[in-house]
Design a protein that fits this description.
single chain; 548 residues; alpha/beta; TIM Barrel; three-stranded antiparallel sheet; binds 3-methyl-2-oxobutanoic acid; binds zinc ion
């Protein structure tokens, strides 16, 4: 069994993470996330569940081709493995293979439940049938793809003796990674340690070429602790998601595991290949695309995670940073730089700063960014890296525009009905103007937009927060909307189709404008998905993003 001091990071943000309600990303967004994960040093990207729908298959195929292959002159060693999930049946395995075969290093990840509860109620299969199916389907996957991973779903509640038998069969049939999911987040760290330890010691045929992997869910808030316990027991692959997104309470979060291994190195004596300085940016990207806001007190990536200067800790921090700070903000890419650029900074300074931050813009993109920058500098004295990130996300990481906000005027307060007049540029190139009243300015603006766009939907969530401190701070709004028909997908485990939810993001010094932008951002995704599916031609995103 592989037991060195390197822990492979298997990121499943695009599969298990995307299964969380409302995390639908368009194909262009998935590609951008996959690129960022690759640049950050993730070893394996689980790009999706190709059997869910033709759109999902296509999204995985694009990631395999565009992220899973070395660029000319680049070494294959730098390219991540691209995994596709498949239930243990031939049709799913065929679809997974179809989607990933273009990658330089493809992996089929197949799974079947092994707990008594799942076998009886979900699969309606006897344990003997499960063993037989695992053996046949792992062999079938192996006949297509050299690299096969097998997961006994709900391993956390499975009989360990039975697991040894199933896993032994998976090894015999050619699986080289055995992933042990605590599917419902039920185990405690001691139990999970014992489970992994037992598997390593008792699975027949265990050998040096096998990697044991850990995959934990956070229902009892123990996902990271369990993952680390499994690693201590000998697992050398951790399955994680950015920001810990995932079904119910989510998956183990990538940043917590990586930073725990790094910060407590003397205890673990283990390494990952992650460039931790890219953590904050990737966290933000995933949050913007999914519309899932990171809670402020979230470890590592929450807005308050490094806010030591507040309250009772201030005195200690002033005396010495290490009194309360166990990690340096810059180690996770939280840039402390306050003053970056001002009103008089030129194009060159902007280009340089953006390049340092990892965004390489061509001339046309720079023109757009510079125009936005000047507009912002007129309203805000100092522009920080955080402002620039928000501006870049707003300008470039949007879906293709269908409707663009061309102008708006809002009246609100206590003297009359809040009213918004909104002017949108439509897909026909014409300007459409409408004024509506609402219970508040945002409601009024959304009603006016609805009247023009005519795309029925339900607003599920609306969040607003200031990105930077100060009265002139940029306000950031994220929304999540659900369309009213079509656009179903399915997750691998529940097998029940559910409606896709689209997230939108907008930033502006005026929060009503930011709100309108966020709503239009989500509406544009919904419109494009309804008319062209989830894999339309990407447009508004950078031709290439380079990270330092
Ligand atoms: O949690 C789980 O069991 C899974 C498997 C499909 C690996 O996500
Ligand atoms: Zn899972």
């Amino acid at each position: 069994m592989t037991k060195n001091n390197y822990v492979k990071i298997f990121d499943t943000t695009l599969r298990d993470g995307e299964q969380s309600p409302g995390a639908t990303m368009t194909s262009a967004e998935k590609l951008e996330v996959a690129r960022s994960l690759a640049r950050m040093g993730v070893d394996i990207i689980e790009a999706g569940f190709p059997a869910a729908s033709p759109d999902d298959l296509e999204a995985v195929r694009r990631i395999a081709l565009e992220v899973g292959r070395p660029a000319p002159g680049e070494s294959e060693a730098k390219v991540p493995v691209i995994a596709g999930l498949a239930r243990a049946n031939k049709s799913d395995i065929d679809k997974a293979w179809e989607a990933i075969q273009g990658a330089a290093k493809p992996r089929i990840h197949t799974f079947l439940a092994t707990s008594a509860i799942h076998m009886k109620h979900k699969l309606k299969m006897d344990p003997e049938e499960v063993v037989q199916r695992v053996s046949e389907m792992v062999a079938y996957a192996k006949s297509k793809c050299e690299d096969v991973e097998f997961s006994p779903e709900d391993a956390g509640r499975s009989d360990p003796e039975f697991l040894y038998v199933v896993l032994g069969e998976a090894i015999k049939s050619g699986a080289t990674t055995l992933n042990i999911p605590d599917t419902v987040g039920y185990t405690t760290p001691d139990e999970y340690f014992a489970l992994i330890d037992g598997i390593i010691k008792n699975t027949p045929g265990m050998h040096d070429g096998i990697t044991i992997s850990v995959h934990c869910h956070d229902d009892l808030g123990m996902a990271t602790a369990n993952t680390l316990a499994g690693i201590r027991a000998g697992a050398r692959q951790a399955e994680v998601t950015v920001n810990g997104i995932g079904e119910r309470a989510g998956n183990t979060s990538m940043e917590e595991v990586v930073m725990a291994l790094r910060t407590r190195k003397p205890i673990f004596n283990l390494e990952t290949g992650i460039d931790t300085r890219q953590i904050a940016r990737v966290s933000k990207l995933v949050s913007n695309y999914t519309g899932i806001v990171v809670q402020p007190n979230k470890a590592i990536v929450g807005a308050n995670a490094f806010a030591h200067e507040a309250g009772i800790h201030q005195d200690g921090m002033l005396k010495h940073q290490t009194t309360y700070e166990i990690m340096r903000p810059e180690d996770v890419g939280v840039n402390q730089t306050k003053l970056v650029l001002g009103k008089h900074s030129g194009r060159h300074a902007l280009r340089n700063r953006l390049a340092e931050m990892g965004h390489s813009l061509d001339d046309v993109e720079l023109d757009k960014a510079f125009a936005r920058f000047k507009e912002l500098a007129d309203r805000k004295k100092v522009i920080t890296d955080v402002d620039l990130e928000a501006l870049i996300a707003d300008e470039f990481y949007r879906p293709r525009d269908v409707y663009i906000l061309d102008g708006m005027q809002v009246t609100c307060g206590t003297m009359g009905m809040p009213t918004a007049t909104v002017r949108l540029k439509g897909p026909d190139g014409k300007l459409h103007v409408f004024a509506a009243m609402g219970s508040g300015p945002v409601d009024a603006a959304y009603k006016a937009i609805d009247h023009i766009v005519k795309m029925p939907n339900t607003l599920l969530e609306f969040n607003v927060h200031a990105i930077t401190e100060g009265i002139d701070a940029l306000g950031e709004v994220t929304v999540r909307i659900q369309g009213q028909d079509g656009l179903h997908t399915m997750d691998a485990q529940s097998e029940i189709p559910y409606q896709r939810v689209f997230g939108g993001h907008g930033a502006d010094t005026d929060i009503i404008v930011a709100s309108a932008k966020a709503y239009l951002n989500a509406l544009n995704k919904l419109i494009i998905a309804q008319t062209e599916g989830l894999n339309p031609t990407p447009a508004n995103h950078l031709h290439g993003v380079m990270l330092g």
